Amino acid sequence: EAQVTQNPRYLITVTGKKLTVTCSQNMNHEYMSWYRQDPGLGLRQIYYSMNVEVTDKGDVPEGYKVSRKEKRNFPLILESPSPNQTSLYFCASSLSGGSSYNEQFFGPGTRLTVL
Amino acid sequence: LAKTTQPISMDSYEGQEVNITCSHNNIATNDYITWYQQFPSQGPRFIIQGYKTKVTNEVASLFIPADRKSSTLSLPRVSLSDTAVYYCLVGDISSGSARQLTFGSGTQLTVLP
Q1: Distance from CA of A47 to the nearest CA of B (A)
Q2: pLDDT tens per residue, range A6-29
Q3: Contact A56/B at CB under 8 A
């Protein structure tokens, strides 16, 4: 089944404890992206990647890191989480060419709470 | 970076046609307009995409005027299950073009019986 998976789905952690949220897609998509969703603010892009070893900042990159060493994986790293990073996080992937340029496939989400 | 503006909420009744308009005044030449649907605690789901004029698929139509500064998502004969948040997204992730994609804050559509 074509899908985007994220792990963990739920995470409660404490301020300053490094964490990684994994994202993997099995559709051979070039484009991958991370979003956070907060009440009243919609979806805001954190980082995106056009292909392996190519990443760039989105609207709200502060406090986050990403890497794209393999095409299928795009982990989101919080080196020193803070309470303002408590949010619902979504990973997405897309073909970067073809007839549906912007059809992104989203993962199920990761709900992160930083105490 | 193209910013989008949508109504915060809309109500409709079952069986009616619903039109949700999105403004994107500084859309770039290469930008596509894409709409997504999101149910609570789920990731957004692609509905439709267009560049200009009119696009129709099995679930919706997308109307884009000649100046492309706005677009209208049309949902025919909505049902209760269409209650969701609808996002307009403007951008382009075609190969070789590294662009940010910005979602608006979305429109909460509530379909009433």
Answers
A1: 9
A2: 999 999 999 999 999 999 999 999
A3: yes
